[in-house]
Design goal:
Elements (H helix, E strand, L loop, with lengths): L6 H24 L20 H21 L4 H17 L13 H16 L7 H11 L7 H14 L3 H13 L3 H14 L5 H33 L1
Length: 232
């Protein structure tokens, strides 16, 4: 796994993740993502905002939406609600200081993943970009650590809310997923959207994001070689 890396490599990759996480969170706040159903991304991490009453309400809502799906498996609104509520339940169990999801949160993240994938399988003409932002967090290293799915969520979000920050996230997760072509194209888009005074900083972040993917790939190759060698 990516964060099985040791020493300097691990610190570099962790630093990139943290930087990009802050950028994405800032982008979500800037664009005012969230509404009556979903709430804001960062609101889900605020302590004291939910509590057992809110949790019970979301659990009841999930149960009601699952009942709807039993009669209509193609109910997109139900799938969006199930994924959103499970994400928010998981966020209630995340570390409020780091945003890292605890082991207790993983069941909710897995349930959110299942609903989100079923929703995407229905090929909605305009996927829910608010939920895509949530799922990007769910699939990050702080959550389920699924870079390929994170890349997909990042692409959906960036298409709905084009910005340098959004496309840098695509660069990061495309690189981690081994999709160098998408990473390159996203990097070009990020630079195009960057204000003149920030292009050098954006370029540096793109390079760091690409480096995280290269480091991950290199670590995987090294681990595979080591395993093969010990088996001889």
């Amino acid at each position: 796994m990516l964060f099985d890396l040791k020493g300097k490599r691990r610190r570099v990759v962790q630093g990139v993740y943290l930087t990009l996480a802050v950028l994405m969170a800032g982008g979500l706040v800037f664009f005012g993502i969230g509404g009556a159903t979903n709430g804001g991304l960062l609101d889900a991490f605020k302590g004291g905002g939910g509590g057992s009453s809110a949790d019970k309400t979301m659990k009841k809502e999930i149960a009601a939406m699952e009942a709807r799906l039993a009669t209509n498996p193609q109910d997109q609104a139900a799938l969006v609600t199930i994924a959103t509520d499970n994400y928010r339940l998981a966020a209630e169990k995340a570390d409020p200081n780091t945003g890292v999801f605890t082991d207790k949160a993983k069941d909710n993240l897995t349930a959110a993943d299942s609903a989100w994938q079923k929703y995407l399988a229905l090929n909605p003409p305009k996927p829910n970009d608010t939920l895509a932002g949530y799922m990007l967090q769910a699939y990050s290293q702080a959550g389920l650590n699924k870079p390929d799915k994170a890349k997909q969520a990042a692409e959906i979000f960036s298409e709905a809310h084009p910005s340098s920050n959004a496309y840098i996230n695509v660069v990061l997760y495309a690189s981690l997923a081994g999709d160098t072509r998408t990473a390159k194209l996203a990097g070009q888009k990020a630079l195009q959207l960057a204000p003149k005074g920030q292009r050098s900083s954006v370029k540096a972040l793109i390079q760091q994001a690409e480096a995280a993917g290269a480091t991950s790939a290199s670590s995987g190759a090294t681990g595979a070689t080591g395993t093969t060698g010990s088996g001889g």
